[in-house]
Write a structure and sequence with these properties.
globular; alpha/beta; 8-stranded parallel beta sheet
Length: 282
């Protein structure tokens, strides 16, 4: 079976971006699977009023994954949740108590989507990558612990969005996972630095943006990591964070340059994915 490359964190936006055209670009260079991460409610022109707004967002994400699966040869796995930047905005729009109430109910709904097999993971959840007021940060952590406890109840992986992480952050995430009864290997640090040995020590799974330098540095410490584009699919920011072709192209380039071995590629793009998400890539 030929290896089909996996993008662990991709956004597709049929309203503001290229939509399925971007998925076909990924497919045409050897891409086989994407973890389709939900965007903001505003990306879908959904008025942000209450938890029902997020239910509509999740339904849109799942429907988009279905369209990708029908219209391309790429398999899309939906990843759904309340983005921490949107949650921070909710704290301003409503108040912290109301924002938490809405977000927790939204994540209860996300849990139902996972239990029904419509989504495979929570994400991206966590705390903003920029500075916020202490009370908003505390609310983000309250929500994140709630998400971890939901994860434990239904054995659901989590994609984390946080500030740029250090070894101390990985240890923090490990402790939160253990506290909530979650296996740390089902906690994925999206947009992770190449802290491969730290990830192995703590159990947290790093997911690295696909650049030559990033992956070259990571593989010096081992192949226990995932690769992502974090493609945001916004015509106002073309190619951000990196383009939809990046994961297959960087993987192939580093293989040709003998930086990645065939064993590394199978580990990164199949074994690690199956281990983290409890899915089968056939």
């Amino acid at each position: 079976m030929p290896l089909r490359f996996v993008d662990n964190h991709m956004h597709i936006d049929p309203i503001n971006g290229e939509g399925i055209k971007a998925v076909k670009k990924f497919q045409n260079v050897g891409g086989g699977y994407i973890f389709l991460v939900s965007k903001f409610t505003t990306s879908w022109d959904i008025p942000l009023k209450d938890e029902e707004s997020f239910k509509k967002l999740f339904q849109k994400t799942v429907s988009l994954a279905d369209n990708i699966n029908d219209e391309t040869d790429v398999k899309a796995f939906p990843v759904i949740g309340v983005h921490p930047a949107e949650f921070a905005h909710m704290c301003d729009k409503f108040n912290i108590k109301k924002a938490l109430e809405i977000a927790k109910k939204a994540m209860d709904m996300a849990s139902d989507f996972v239990k029904e097999g419509q989504a495979v993971a929570f994400g991206e959840v966590g705390r903003p990558h920029y500075e916020v007021e202490d009370n908003v940060l505390k609310a983000c952590m309250d929500l994140l612990e709630y998400v971890f406890r939901l994860s434990k109840d239904i054995d659901c992986p989590i994609q984390l969005h946080t500030e740029s992480s250090t070894a101390e952050h990985f240890e923090e995430f490990r402790k939160l996972a253990i506290k909530c009864g979650v296996n740390p290997q089902h906690v994925i640090k999206h947009y992770s630095p190449p802290l491969i040995k730290i990830g192995e020590k703590t159990g947290i799974f790093p997911s690295l943006v696909s650049s030559k330098d990033n992956i070259s540095q990571a593989i010096r410490e081992g192949n226990r990591f995932l690769m992502e584009s974090d493609y945001i699919d916004d015509l106002k920011r073309p190619g951000a964070v990196v383009g939809p072709k990046s994961v297959p192209r960087i993987s192939q380039r580093l293989f040709e340059e003998e930086i990645l071995t065939e064993e590394d590629l199978w580990k990164i793009h199949k074994d690690n994915i199956e281990k983290v998400y409890n899915v089968s890539l056939d």
